[in-house]
Amino acid sequence: MNHRLMSLARSSMASASGMGVAPRRLAIISRQPSTSVLLRPFPSTRQHPQRSLTATYASLGKESASAAPSASSAPADSSLNPFKNLVKDKLFTCTMCGKCCTGEGEVWVTDREAGAITAHLDITATAFEERFTRQRYRMEGFHLLTNLTDEQKSCVFLLPDNKCSIHTVRPGQCSTYPWWPELMDEAGWQDERWHVCEGFNHEDAVALTDEGVESAARQLREANVQEELKSLALGKKLQQDRKKGSQGGWLSSYTKPEKTQGF
Question: What is the mean pLDDT of residues 76-83?
Fold first, then answer.
């Protein structure tokens, strides 16, 4: 796999930090995560390598839901411990600057998330595809959102006040930010701070509470699962394109977004 395709496989998952702010859209495709913080994928994706990605995602969603603690405080989920160790010392606060939703980048939406957005907007699946996605760029189980035509290349769902028009049903790539696997090592965290988001190590950021650590750990685990699913989809797409020949698929002409300038 060449560098361009490896870059796509590592494309980031974006998310929002609360307060109704528009979630992160920017994906620094060229950045490679440190091998020291790569997280093991959920067993389900290894146990059923031939099953469809749609079925795999549905299964993972059920497992994730069943693993979540009830409001009546269930026993601590020990599977979160590796993720807690990665997030517990991080400092972040959302300033609603909107930089996470503008500039060169990508947001990949799963079929299930696309369905939720479609229902939220009360439109057909066809209308969603035509109005909000780049239809040429398609992998099994994933849709690539388009951008606005403004100078900032904003996310198609970004409002003028830097809020998200679909915040309640925003994609997992958005809802898990900044708790992404590739941002958990110090180099990735600092790179994001200086080139994308001023909320990293912001002077107003406070240490995470125990509840905050658990929430961030769950988001990191979710981002890790979704990244694994996207990598599986990419591998399948590559196989399909090879069967069509080197000129047969969109990956052969894919151009990675350029990294934004520091603010």
Answer: 90
